[in-house]
Amino acid sequence: MHIVAFVAQKGGSGKSTLASNVAVAGHLAGERVFICDLDPLQLLVKWSKARKAVDVPVEHIPPGKLAPALAALASKGVTLAVIDTPGADPAACEEAIRAADLCVIPARPNTLDIWASEATLAKVRSCGKDYAFLLNQCPPAQQGVRVERGAQALQQLGALLAPLVSTRVDYQDAIRLGLGVGELNPSGVAAREMRRLWASLRGRLEENARSAAPELSLFPYRSFFDQAIKAHDFYASFLNALLPADRGTAERPPPEDAARRR
Ligand SMILES: Nc1ncnc2c1ncn2[C@@H]1O[C@H](COP(=O)(O)OP(=O)(O)OP(=O)(O)O)[C@@H](O)[C@H]1O
Ligand SMILES: [Mg+2]
Asked: Which of 3, 4, 32, 93 is 20 to 30 A distant from 105 in Cα terms?
């Protein structure tokens, strides 16, 4: 059973939206999916009541009960457990991180969200878990050359999941109806984003499972990311890739970008 946790200690970055949509994308791809809702507000439990069908079950898991719940799910043949966590609840966040095979850290493409994700990132790294960022609520228009290039570099390093997820009404409508965007509008752009995201996640989970032989303590992507951080100020590059070129600490645009503007 693969276990994916959506963790970010800043509220509103899209954990619940993405957890429900990834769960549905996995379900549509043939996984036996279960959502563990660690949030005391139980918003995904509400989502599943709106859904009515029990094909993507959701249960609220109280504090301290996640590990036995996951063991029970694995023994019942669940192939994908998706964990949604509350914002600003370090204990629940840590419980999810410790249980997960892969921690997804959603952030909106703004400086405050990315700064806020530092605490989550530190916790994930201290637990020795594999992780990747996921940029959510990006402007739907095509990204600038700089952002595209920064995102591609981070995706190649495994630090950022593909694709960038845009702000789209389908995500909001789907939640209200207890659906995933892949069910609400299967030919829509949001549905395509979620199919691509599921493909990225599945590839990553399968690769981790292959490399998780007992003698290997480092996940391939994590060590890659850690080396990149050591090699140069990678995190600053992450910020710079997302900030407007003429503001704050952003580096100067590459010459070809500057040429395009003229
Ligand atoms: N890609 C998106 N497009 C449009 N709206 C989105 C998208 N992602 C999230 N939202 C909206 O942003 C708001 C916050 O999303 P969500 O509740 O999923 O965040 P969260 O990280 O789970 O928050 P919390 O930490 O409070 O649980 C919601 O209103 C949701 O509908
Ligand atoms: Mg939530």
From this structure: 32
163: preceding bond cis by omega (within 30 degrees): yes
* Angstrom distance (rounded) from CA 12 to CA 87: 8
Q: Report the share of the chain in percent with pLDDT over 90.
A: 61
> Cα(6) to centroid of ligand 2, in Å?
9
| CATH topology assigned to domain 2-261 | Rossmann fold (3.40.50)
Quickly tell me which residue has 């199919």 as its tokens: 195
CB-based contacts of 111, cutoff 8 Å, min separation 6: 239, 242, 243, 248
pLDDT tens digits, 5-43: 999 988 999 999 999 999 999 999 999 999 999 999 999
Report how far ligand 1's centroid is from the alpha carbon of 101 (Å): 23
Burial class of residue 244 (count of CB atoms within 10 Å of its CB; 0-12, 13-18, 19+): exposed
- Residues in a beta bridge with 105: 133
Q: Answer whether 20 contacts ligand 1 (Cβ < 6 A).
A: no
